[in-house]
What does this fold into?
Amino acid sequence: MTTDKSSGTLPPVRPWPALHPPGVAFGPDLADLMRDGPVTRVRRPHGGGWAWLVTRYDDVRAVTNDPRFGHEPVRDGQPARLAPHVVPQRDAVGFPDPPDPARPRRSVAAALSARGTERVRETARHMLDELVDELLQDGPPADLTATVLDPFPAAVICELTGVPAADRHDLRTWTRLALSTAHGTKAGERARDEMSAYFADLIGVREGGTGEDVVSLLGAAVGLGEVTLEEAVGLAVLLQFGAEAVTDHTARMFHLLLTRPDLAERLRAEPAVRPQAVDELLRHIPHRNPMGPPRIATQDVEVAGVRIRAGEAVYVSYAAANRDPGVFPDPETIDFARYPNPHLAFGCGPHRCPGGMPARLMSDLVLDVLLDRVPGLRLAVPPDEVPFRAGALSRGPEALPVTW
It folds into this structure.
């Protein structure tokens, strides 16, 4: 990494923000880094020296939309990993850089658009109602994560993707292994490889098909030579990983609402405000531990008055950008009337999360169904006794004990 001293004294290297802040907490150390300045230096947690961290909303948007900051050098574990157990694969759809990073995504845009997502709304609502039926039939106490919030997103993503029902348990197991350190690096890499092989076979079977699901659209695109099989597999795997993020977000959302009964009661009394509430909760609740993969400057670039040299790594914090007081007045307050609310929970730029629309659909449905069908829902343990998952990229409760 270049550290050209001629540009002036570099700021001190600060510790990396806590990997596992308690509960849904924003994290005081990340707040301290924001106060230090819009661009700071941090020591990377998984080796590789230091990197720049960008926290201000406008600067985060500028970096993520600037082709001079590339993901390509990050692939294959060089020069940094997302986590010790996650090495980006070549052709992983989250990493290709301009001139056309969106090319693999265009092949499935119809399935993941607002209209395409609406195609599965009725099925998704039916799946969710069945899960809640079982929850109510078994009675309290219950683990809301295990009974509803974990199986629901995985089932909806599989429905959108076109994964047969008989294979969904395997997909869920592979996803958990690939995204967690709990079973070791080799287990995670083996699960990722098995999932990739599964999707390669399924896309091959659907090649030349005319279905509306993601795998069928990818099969058609591969057949036409619009994407490679490796790119198609990378996108299918990425979407499957997205189900885990939805599980974690909805579990954190309900953890927050059940510890703030005033907010939950308002949403029960005012159903019309729920869509805005989902956006505000997406803004307020940190969505990962605590940043995504780095970008690498391909040439010298100035960001907020700081000169970043070619070859230096840059992280952006969407969680910090979502607390920028210049964009979100009184950012620590949960304000369901906040408008506009241009949060970056799904990222921004050419690498924005492709599953944003399905994630919104699932969050909307879970909020509606649980608030309306389980009006007495409350935590069965004190809030500080809710166990949060450790050793994973995202931050959801491992269990959410509830009663009603």
The longest helix spans residues 229-259.
